[in-house]
Amino acid sequence: MNPIDIFIIIAYLIFVFSIGLYYSKRQVSTSEYFLAGRKVPGWVVGFSIMGTIIGSSTFVGQPGEVFRENMWALPLHLMLFPVMLFVARYVVVFYRRTIRMSVYGYLEKRFGYPVRVYGGLAFIFSRLVDVSATFYFLSLAVAYMTGADLGLIIVTIGIFTVAYTLLGGIAAVLWTDVIQGAMLLGGGFIILAYAILAPAAGPWTVVTTAFDGGKFSWGSWDFSFIENNVWIYLALGMVWAVQRFATDQHMVQRYLVAKSDDEAKKAAYIGGVSCL
Question: Domains of the chain: which residue ranges?
Answer without folding.
Answer: 3-104+167-275
